[in-house]
Design a protein that fits this description.
two-stranded antiparallel sheet; 8 strands; SH3 type barrels; globular; six-stranded mixed β-sheet
């Protein structure tokens, strides 16, 4: 779907100065401030009533760690054009200690869990 301006110019629909399509974000790498790749965005959790992205769920894992999913507060991520990915102000070790879950053990994402996530990331 494309939008037309008053000048019949087709505008990009996957990214503007203020918006980005979730299709462009899913799979995007996430790095620590030191440049270590932490994982990639697996999906978003979006508020049903206000439409705001609350959490970007990071797929973190590997051969020895197993797949773990870490909900990151959306506002904790900063896009870095040089890395072509997002940065977060914590290390791989700090991420390992953050609230997380395994596939099939998804949390309820209730108010308590939201506070747990926010409290954890407010320390950094």
């Amino acid at each position: 779907m494309a939008f037309e301006s008053d000048h019949d110019t087709i505008l990009a629909t996957d990214e503007t100065s203020d918006l980005i399509s979730s299709e462009k974000v899913d799979g995007t790498a996430v790095y620590s401030r030191d440049g270590d790749k932490l994982g990639s965005i697996h999906h978003f959790m979006v508020g049903k009533r206000d439409g705001r992205v609350r959490f970007a769920v990071l797929n973190f894992g590997g051969l020895f760690e197993g797949d773990r999913y870490h909900p990151l507060p959306w506002n904790a991520l900063t896009y870095n054009t040089e890395l072509d990915g997002y940065e977060i102000g914590l290390s791989k070790e700090q991420l390992k200690d953050s609230p997380s879950f395994e596939r099939g053990s998804e949390p309820a994402y209730d108010a308590r869990y939201g506070r747990e996530i926010d409290d954890y990331y407010s320390r950094f």
